[in-house]
């Protein structure tokens, strides 16, 4: 990896060629939402894989933010209430969007246009908002960012 690498609590997946980094507070449902997106993508005939769950190493390479898994958790994802399960995975992938919690209270129902998630100096991604109980999260993400399915 080139330059600084840091570890964040997140879940990173790849759908088709699009990297999605699920970031939010503990208990929000990052892992379950990411797993549901992987499952939905596969049902649609799109390739989809886990990069890392719980701990994600972020770095920059050729101007792109790269997510990488710690080897100790390779191919494992924790589904709260179910346990740790195996999931098809890749060791690293470029990230294109940050998936953040939406506002269930009705306050800030419409996130700002050009919403951005900032992780550190020089580490930011366009943000997509999602409620934890979204029945078809990938469909919702693809409605906001159609390039996910391309």
Short description:
The chain is mainly beta and 150 residues long. It has helices at 30-43, 137-144, and strands at 2-15, 18-22, 48-61, 64-68, 76-79, 83-86, 92-94, 97-101, 116-120, 123-130. The strands form two sheets. Strands 7-4-3-1-2-8-10-9 form an eight-stranded mixed β-sheet. Strands 5-6 form a two-stranded antiparallel ribbon.
What features would you describe in this structure?
15% of the residues lie in helices and 45% in strands. The chain has helices at 30-43, 137-144; strands spanning 2-15, 18-22, 48-61, 64-68, 76-79, 83-86, 92-94, 97-101, 116-120, 123-130. The protein has an eight-stranded mixed β-sheet. Strands 5-6 form a two-stranded antiparallel ribbon. A hairpin with a 2-residue loop joins strand 9 (116-120) and strand 10. The mean pLDDT is 91.
């Amino acid at each position: 990896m080139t330059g600084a690498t840091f570890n964040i609590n997140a879940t990173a997946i790849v759908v088709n060629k699009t990297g999605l980094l699920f970031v939010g507070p503990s208990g929000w449902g990052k892992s379950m939402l990411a797993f549901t997106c992987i499952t939905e993508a596969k049902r649609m005939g799109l390739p989809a894989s886990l990069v890392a769950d719980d701990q994600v190493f972020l770095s920059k390479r050729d101007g792109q933010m790269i997510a990488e898994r710690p080897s100790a958790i390779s191919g494992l994802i924790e589904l709260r209430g179910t346990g740790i399960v195996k999931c098809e995975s890749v060791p690293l992938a470029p990230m294109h969007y940050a998936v953040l919690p939406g506002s269930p209270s009705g306050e800030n129902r419409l996130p700002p246009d050009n919403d951005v998630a900032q992780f550190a100096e020089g580490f930011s991604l366009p943000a997509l908002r999602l409620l934890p109980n979204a029945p078809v999260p990938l469909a919702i993400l693809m409605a906001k960012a159609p390039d996910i399915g391309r």
